[in-house]
Amino acid sequence: MNRYFYKFIFLTLAIGITTVGQGYTQTTSTGKLTGKVVDVQTNETVPFASAVLIDKTSKAIIKTGQTDLNGDLLINNIPEGVFTIKISYVGYQTMVRNEVAINKSQSVVNLGTIKMKTASGNVLSEVTITAAKSTMQLGIDKKVFSVDQSLVSEGGSASDLLQNVPSIQTDVDGNVSLRGSTGVRVLIDGKPSLIAGGDIAQILQSIPASSIETVEVITNPSAKYDAEGQSGIINIVLKRNKKLGLNGNVALTAGNRDSYNGNTSLSFQNNKINIYGNYGYRHGNRPGGGFNNITYKKPNPLTDLKFADQTMSSTGLDKSHNAKAGIDYYLTPKDILSLSGGFNSRNQSNSDRAMIYKYGSQRDPQEFSTRNNSNLGSGNSYDLNFDYSHKFQTQGEELTFNFGYSTGDNDNFQEYNTLVYSNAGVPVSAQNELQRNINNGNNSNYNIQADYVLPMGKAGKIETGYRSQIRYSDNHTQALELNSSTGNYDEDYALSNLFNSKDQVHALYLNYQNQYKNFGYQIGLRGEDALLNTNSGGFDGTGNVTYTPGKISYARLYPSIYLTQKFKGEQQLQVSYSRRVNRPRPWDTNPFTDYSDLLNWRRGNPNLLPEDVHSFEMSYSKLWPKVTLLSTAYMRRTNDLIQRVRSAADPVTGVIITTPQNLSRDISSGFEFISKVDVIKAWNFTANVNVYHSDIAAAPAYDIDGNSGFSWNANLTNNFVLPYSITLQVKAEYESDEVMAQGKRNANWNADAGAKYDFPGKKASLSFNVRDVFNTRMWSMEFEDNNTKTEFQRRRYGPVANLTFSYRFGQTTFMKKSKKPDQQEMKPDEGSF
Q1: Phi first, then psi: what are they for 151, rounded to 5°?
Q2: E-state strands within 737-799
Q3: How far apart are CA 780 and CA 746, in angstroms?
Q4: What is the pTM of this model?
Q5: How many H-runs (helices) and E-runs (strands) does the chain carry?
Q6: Which of 21, 248, 504, 829 has its CA 20 to 30 A from that of 819?
Q7: Upper half-sphere CA count for residue 638 (Cβ side, 13 Å)
Q8: CA distances from 734 to 165, 675, 711, 740 (A)
């Protein structure tokens, strides 16, 4: 199967390269086109808006362009002729001008100021319908991917959707990595989420894919952003209303394994108020399994334990409700008050069965045990945000303020039933265990932020701001064990734990950016004061609590710099540097031991230090009429690298304890290629290839020799427009082996496919998709040190299929002008300028 997959990637990329080569062939060029793009309401410039020049007669795309940081548009080398110019950007109406003539007597055309119309404007007499979005937008320090039309993730979760975004990978358990690194900061609407106590994997499982509008990928953030995140930031932007009038939609999904989803939204907007709300429900089963096989290189002479083979099977049911609502009130044309709130409720039930076989050096059976684990989890989280923005008389000058509060609880009831057999197959009654764990957690987040933008001269501006983030966390684990003589459950104080923390970060930042002709630069500095206080409480034999305090405190400066040079032919080169930090999570510092796995225990480290990250990037972008290309070379040095280190096995039980530790450093470097190619009118694809090298230094204190090696991953998404209003999407992904401090993660690949039919009028649609078509998606690793060798695998069983019906209703405008003569060829989502 892999051989055909590689051929598929090679063939598609070859077509893309051929198309790129064709983009160089141009007619004799004589003219140029200029203009400035601004927001119609605020007069703010719109950077990185896309422009397309179309031949009036043949309808062929002749040239493309993009506005710079200050909204200035320049398209050179235009042949003689009469053209239509279209200018578009995410969230704005596409603006169109016909009859743009270039000839010898008029070689330069100045379009003047082009005012982009948005749904929040007050110009109600104009056609104001949001344009279809470009799937990829390139900014000075981020890439924005429009994902609300992803067919293969329809009816799935946020975790399913992120699999289709270039640069991002997710494993079978929903853990996220960016360019191969798991040290990534994941935000929801620019803020951390408290769903499931902040567990990213569970957060992404709880949010329906249909609630997401765009995904922002920020691989080298500027000083304006939080310094948190080793490899960068992924910001998931949920949908909110951008249309005038009363609008709504409903989507219902049914899938195999008794999976169901529903999503609905309703909004209303006029010139003074914008009200919006959406609600999503998820009900999904997750059957899976795997194995964990350990070879002990130095068996104990007394026990002769040489091998331990563990097989696992699991079933899980996730149910969640996710709602968001908000109101924007326009006090004046320059003042907006916003209030929004969100709610998430989740319920989980998981059942795991593990069977463990222990053998001697001759594969002679020593012991067999079974453990049945059941877990019932529930939780609610709430968030509330107040925002205010004021635009001054000077164009581009703006002050914004945000106060955010969120709170959540996370409760779990776990039951472990362990039965141990002798090598003769007889139960050893003295070792039978029936345990229960009751976990209760409460978390609260506060966010206070103010940002100010001041234009400086013709092309420069200053950005400055302040942000405080404070998080309180309180968790209690009560362990109970069945007393066979009384039939009651007695508290096991050795396994019970109290843990609370206060994590706070206060920050100030300053950015200055300017542009001289085609050269732009941005220099920034962010200062952060961080403090993490923890208290871990253990019980003595009488139930008295003894607390062990922990403290991690530091203040750092995080500089960033971006240098951008634009060249002829829609080319741009950018060099950037930023310093970042990857802070330990509170639960990584909790010294309490998790005994839920019979062979692998986990324990936190109260002395864990934050990672210090220095990131360098050089990117090149090029736009052709049918091709967008972005290539990036990067290097990242991480000091005080945090890795989960495995201990030597216990000589009697064979148990391995995994604890996060600070190693010396890791140097990761690589090259990434992202391209969107419009092959023909009915077919386009987006390709992403990332090749990187990781060099992890030796850590003798933990018996780690160091490790290094090359890895790569590729993602290919094809979109087809078929007859009879049918669209088709096919996506494939491959990840090679990847080195870790004590082993490697094994290669895997998977493929998804989806199709959609639009009913006449395009008010309703029916879509069908299958994720993991060939049932190949898994997560497997190999660990090896001087004491043990481990093979580990986890996977979900079978493809996931969904059928979704969607219906859209409402009026997107209050009034419509009669069409002018030059508007007759325009689409409903376009306006003239």
Answers
A1: -80, -35
A2: 738-740, 743-745, 748-758, 764-771, 778-784, 788-796
A3: 6
A4: 0.76
A5: 3, 47
A6: 248
A7: 28
A8: 13, 17, 11, 18
CA nearest to 717, candidates 701, 702, 733, 703: 733
Whose tokens are 């939080």? That residue is 226
Tell me if 2-118 shares its fold with 143-810. Answer: no
Give the pair of three-digit tokens for residue 489.
């459950």
What are the structure tokens assigned to 749, written together?
A: 């690949």
Biggest alpha carbon distance in the chain?
Answer: 103
Assess whether pLDDT exceeds 50 at residue 831. Answer: yes
Contact 33, 87 (CB under 8 A): no
Map 355-402 to HEC letters. Answer: EEEEECCCCCEEEEEEEEEEEEEEEEEEEEEEEEEEECCCCCCEEEEE
Which residue reads 């190619």 in tokens? 677
Q: How far apart are CA 525 and CA 823, in angstroms?
A: 48
Q: Which one, of 124, 236, 161, lies nearest residue 191 by Cα?
A: 236
* Residue-wise pLDDT tens digits, 745-797: 999 999 999 999 989 987 899 999 998 999 998 889 998 888 899 999 988 87
Report CA-CA distances (Å) from 774 to 232, 728, 751, 800, 801.
32, 18, 7, 10, 12
Query: Which residues in 169-191 are b (16+ Cβ under 10 Å) and which e?
Result: bbbbebbbbbbbbebbbbbbbbb
Q: Count the alpha carbons within 13 Å of 89 in the hemisphere toward its beta carbon.
A: 21
Task: Note the pLDDT tens digit of each residue in 251-306.
Answer: 999 998 888 888 898 888 887 888 989 898 989 888 899 999 999 988 877 788 89
In sequence order, which residues have a C-beta less than 8 Å from that of residue 391 and are 6 or more positions away? Answer: 42, 44, 334, 335, 397, 398
Distance CA 743, CA 740 (A): 5
128: phi then psi, degrees, rounded to nearest 5: -130, 80
- DSSP string covering 543-583: S-EEEEEEEEEEEEEEEEEEEEEEETTTEEEEEEEEEEEEP
Q: Are 222 and 560 in contact (CB under 8 A)?
A: yes
423 pLDDT band, cuts 50/70/90, is: low
> CB neighbours (10 Å) of residue 740?
16
Give the length of the chain: 833
d(CA 436, CA 438): 7
Q: Where are the alpha helices (DSSP H) in 163-233?
A: 200-206
Non-local (6+) Cβ contacts of 699 within 8 A are 645, 661, 663, 664, 706, 741
CATH 2.40.170.20 describes domain 143-810:
yes
Q: How far apart are the first and last CA of the chain?
A: 52
The distance from CA 465 to its chain's CA centroid, rounded to whole angstroms, is 25
Q: How far apart are CA 636 and CA 574, in angstroms?
A: 17
| For the chain, domain boundaries | 2-118, 143-810
Distance separating alpha carbons of residues 305 and 681, to the nearest angstrom:
64
Tell me the C-alpha distance between 693 and 137, whole Å. 28
Express each pLDDT in 551-607 by its tens digit.
889 899 999 999 999 888 778 899 999 999 988 877 788 888 888 788 888 998 988
Backbone dihedral angles phi then psi of residue 306, each to the nearest 5 degrees: -115, -35
Q: What's domain 2-118's architecture?
A: Sandwich (2.60)
Q: What is the pLDDT of residues 17-45, one digit of tens each?
A: 444 444 434 444 578 888 888 877 667 77
